[in-house]
Amino acid sequence: MGGGGQQTESSEPAKGDRGGPGGGRGGSAVYTWEEVQRHCHRGDQWLVIDRKVYNITQWAKRHPGGIRVISHFAGEDATEAFVAFHPDPNFVRKFLKPLLIGELAPTEPSQDQGKNAVLVQDFQALRDRVESEGLLRARPLFFSLYLGHILLLEALALGLLWVWGSSWSLTLLCSLMLATSQAQASWLQHDFGHLSVCKKSSWNHILQKFVIGHLKYGIKKLKYMPYRHQHQYFFLIGPPLLIPVYFHIQILRTMFLRQDWVDLAWSMSFYLRIFCCYYPFFGFFGSVALISFVRFLESHWFVWVTQMNHLPMEMDHERHQDWLTMQLSATCNIEQSTFNDWFSGHLNFQIEHHLFPTMPRHNYHLVAPLVRALCEKHGVPYQVKTLQKGITDVVTEEVRGSVAGCVSP
């Protein structure tokens, strides 16, 4: 079927003409959804943003957010994801202009494959309200307090050892304090990793250089998480080894491959600083053991906090749904409290974190009632658990998966 009835399928233009793999060749043509949806393969990818049709076949490889993110929307409407992930859509549109090959025919709906147009419009209205009320703008004071909290915990841990010595009980207490400070730093890094997808952040460099030694490299290299097989590795590999082993290997490997020698020097300076602080108390091997134990504790908190919002939600395969429904099916919230908010990096508001990935975390609690009301209006489940229930569900899901794996043929 031709675009907007102007061409028949037999008269479809050759590659390199309208919308071939080489990119855009002008934007005067019109297309139907049926025609757009046929271009959803690795070597032939179109998508729609605000009714404009773009050929991203070659651009996908250079996409700053990664080829997998943009390719997920091949043959589909990517408007909601485009708006959600780009802090400055107008800036990004100049990169889209050469890829433009046409637009949807006037008779075609704006949403594809039977999406709820009213729900999509209501969520867009909510996003417009969020933007107009300034909820996408960060407050530097909040993040300054967070950074101060991290440094205070480090200073207190060192002070305890300096005044009362390095007994087993004080060493354990200091390890818990250092693990807490590093977990807090991980949440900050997580924030600015989202914010810097399409916009560089000087705050990101402050955190990665001074506090946590480039955790970003470990996270950015996580291309695939085999959730279907999580029951086979979660307790053994996930909490104890994710940060101290896997992230560190990926960090060093990526820095060497990219020849980021300045970043490597900053990363090593972080460990040198920690090592120099604790060498007088524990010696060489003792300091190495302390750092490893702190990372071990931090890894547990990091993994449990991030997983209890997602298990046992639907994560294996994203269905073709509108943005709101898709995010709500894959995650849930953990109830609000001072402890949950601060020590989980506000990731207890995982629903809002997914819906508005560029929103500063200190505004999640403000938008959460609005999101919940919209979900109730359209009958979309909005799940909130207690902290205990969230952790219990992770354990239950892993045990259930292990049992199923053992009895399956």
Can you offer a commentary on this structure?
It is a multi-pass membrane protein. Pathway: Lipid metabolism; polyunsaturated fatty acid biosynthesis. The chain is mainly alpha-helical. Among the domains are: 3-114, Cytochrome b5-like heme/steroid binding domain (Flavocytochrome B2, Chain A, domain 1), CATH 3.10.120.10; 140-307, no CATH class. 59% of the residues lie in helices and 6% in strands. The chain has helices spanning 33-37, 67-71, 79-85, 89-96, 117-132, 140-164, 168-195, 202-210, 215-220, 230-258, 261-307, 323-330, 338-343, 350-355, 364-378, 387-407; strands at residues 29-31, 40-41, 44-49, 52-55, 100-104, 333-334, 384-385.
In short:
The chain has helices at residues 33-37, 67-71, 79-85, 89-96, 117-132, 140-164, 168-195, 202-210, 215-220, 230-258, 261-307, 323-330, 338-343, 350-355, 364-378, 387-407, and strands at residues 29-31, 40-41, 44-49, 52-55, 100-104, 333-334, 384-385.
Largest sheet: 5 strands, mixed
**Count of β-strands:** 7
* Parts with pLDDT < 50 across at least 5 consecutive residues: 1-18, 193-228, 402-409
H/E element sequence: EHEEEHHHEHHHHHHHHEHHHEH
Which structural class matches the secondary elements? Answer: mainly alpha
Number of separate helices = 16
Cα gyration radius (Å): 24 Å
> What is the share of helical residues?
55-70%
Sheet with most strands: strand arrangement: 1-5-4-3-2
Task: Give the N-terminus to C-terminus distance in angstroms.
Answer: 45 Å
Shape: elongated
Give the integer mean of the pLDDT values: 78
Strand content: 5-15%
